[in-house]
Amino acid sequence: MASQDALYEEAAGEYGAALERLAGSYEFDRDKCRDLLQDIHLGIWRSFEGFAGNCSLRTWVYRVAHNVAASHVVRHRRASKRPLLSLDDVDDLTVTADSGDAFDRQQSLERLREFIQQLKPIERQVILLYLEGTEAAGIAEITGISAGNVATKIHRIKKILAGRFGRGDRHGK
Amino acid sequence: MENDDVAALWRAQSSEGFRMSNEEIRNRIETMNRKMRRRTFDGYLVCATIIVFFAGWMFVGMNSLQLVGAVLMIIAVSYMAWQIRANRFRTPSIDVVDTLEHLRRELARQRDFHRGTRFWSRMLLLFPGGLIFFAGFAQAHPEVIRIIRFETISFVVFALSAIPLNLWMARRYQKQIDALARLEEEK
After folding, report:
1. Which of B25, B124, B132, B134 could form a disulfide with B69 if both were Cys (CB 3.0 to 4.6 A apart)?
2. Are B159 and B180 in contact, with CB atoms under 8 Å apart?
3. For residue B111, is it within any domain?
4. Which residue range is the domain that position A104 belongs to?
């Protein structure tokens, strides 16, 4: 088995960008986001002490990263008065301004981050893993939700994203 | 824009290429340990100050009620100091369980701070000692009974209002745990 440092190097190289996106979706504030990202990296490094190769490196890294981020949400919830939403509470809001050629990518990203930040930790993780291209089975393994339940949530996510960001959901079947 | 485009847009975000060197990681761990030692020290300092305050009264002269109250307070604060000592080197655990389980543990930990043994031991240790001390003080100094009455009422109101407030917090965490349990049942 590779050393803790070597495993961290591999994980940071492979999933570093995804971890940055993850931290960015939990914290808008630049400094807090940086702190969270450091905590995630530190958590991953520390976790490799117990890595026995029972699951893929990707599953391991995402589990630790999402768990550190989920703890961050639980611990900092008291500071925020806005309640977190489940996917079922979110409107299928159609925003026509984004559906044409004059689509502003940066603005859409901001809105996507805002939308993700409204969600409860577990649903936030499902959408983040979906956006990172993780299969339903992989999401189920990382989050602990059944594959069927994940599929239902992904269906809902696609519907919401199509309503908010697009002309329609051609792949949401 | 289609869903695949949204996902592609998400993944195309610019990256700073953040990573920590081994030295940075060890420095950060050392900083965390330093902060933990500082917090432990601060906790000891608060406990020591309270103990010295009540012990000091013993030398000034006390009636038996005050003495019982002061001793109870010293025992309560010593117990709290012992709890701080027991937790001093406990670094936050890194769970590599699935997120549902991790969240459940995290929420249960927060809930248990607001109810159960941890909460009631704090209340039962601090409340009677303080109350008895005030009663003894009122007996010893009837000339300042109004001030002592005000302090006692404030103390009682503060302590009693902490009970529903903490139980309400615990219920909020429990609701979130129940919501996670419902997700698990759907497995």
Report:
1. B132
2. no
3. yes
4. 83-173
**What whole-number distance in Å separates Cα of residue B164 and Cα of residue B157?**
12
Is the four-CA dihedral A7, A8, A12, A15 of positive or negative sign?
positive
ipTM of the predicted structure? Answer: 0.77
Is the Cβ pair A105, B16 closer than 8 Å? no
Whether pTM exceeds 0.95: no
DSSP characters over B42-102: HHHHHHHHHHHHHHHHHHH---HHHHHHHHHHHHHHHHHHHHHHHHTT-PPP---S-HHHH
- Contact state of A122 with B100 under an 8 Å Cβ cutoff: yes
- A35 with A49, same domain? yes
Instruction: From chain A, pick out residues whose CB is under 8 angstroms from the CB of B103.
Output: 70, 74, 121-122
- Residue from the list A45, A63, A169 with its beta carbon closest to the beta carbon of B99: A63
Q: How far, in Å, CA of B75 to CA of B113, rounded?
A: 21
Direct distance between the N- and C-terminal alpha carbons of chain A, in angstroms, rounded to an integer: 42
pLDDT tens column, A99-137: 444 457 788 888 888 888 888 888 889 999 999 999 999
Helix, strand, coil share (%) of chain B residues, nearest 5: 85, 0, 15
Structure tokens at A14: 């492979």
Whether B88 is in a domain gets the answer yes
